[in-house]
Design goal:
This protein is mostly helical and 185 residues long. It has one domain.
């Protein structure tokens, strides 16, 4: 959850570009979207959808394309840390829309909910405990990335340093996307 992926990198970008208030709305959307993804994994809907080779290919192609677009946008933002450019700040609905196409969200949820069984005699209790732990960790991690973005905005770093940060974030995104794609093949 803590590694750079679409959710945390875009959270840092919204924080750097727009500050705390819009960032909190965006994180709220990511939070709901992340729990929707967890519900899709827990219920088996994600497994059924991904079992259809043509649908799996379409979803993988679309999400990979979008995530590569985000990595490119970050990498080529130049000397601006606030790499999420728009006339209006991304809000709740933007965050909500990102998670269902985020392959990393599915990888994390699938790993957590299908592995590490510790209450096989009480699966509902196990799921409830895992959801609680998942969200207890998820919230401060994303708030920390929002804080990092807002802090970068306030630092007014030299253009070369800002470019280096953008390239490092884009590289991290490419690594995470590559790992997510490889786990789906």
């Amino acid at each position: 959850m803590i590694t750079p992926g679409p959710g945390v990198l875009s959270t840092a970008g919204v924080g750097a570009g727009y500050g705390y208030r819009p960032g909190l709305a965006y994180v709220g959307g990511l939070f709901v979207g992340n729990n929707v993804v967890a519900g899709l994994v827990i219920s088996g809907v994600a497994a059924i959808a991904l079992a259809l080779p043509w649908l799996r290919g379409v979803l993988l192609f679309a999400s990979t394309g979008y995530l590569l677009y985000l990595a490119g946008k970050i990498a080529f933002a130049g000397a601006e840390i606030g790499f999420i450019h728009a006339d209006r700040a991304p809000g709740f609905w933007n965050g909500l829309a990102l998670q269902p196409i985020n392959p990393k969200a599915y990888v994390v949820s699938t790993t957590l909910f299908s592995g590490f069984a510790f209450l096989p005699q009480a699966p509902a209790s196990e799921i409830a405990i895992k959801l609680a732990i998942f969200n207890i960790l998820w919230i401060p991690i994303h708030l920390a990335w929002l804080w990092a973005g807002v802090t970068l905005r306030r630092l007014e770093l030299r253009p070369g340093v800002q470019r280096g940060i953008n390239l490092a974030m884009a590289g991290a995104m490419l690594i995470v996307v590559s790992l997510a794609v490889m786990s789906q093949l």
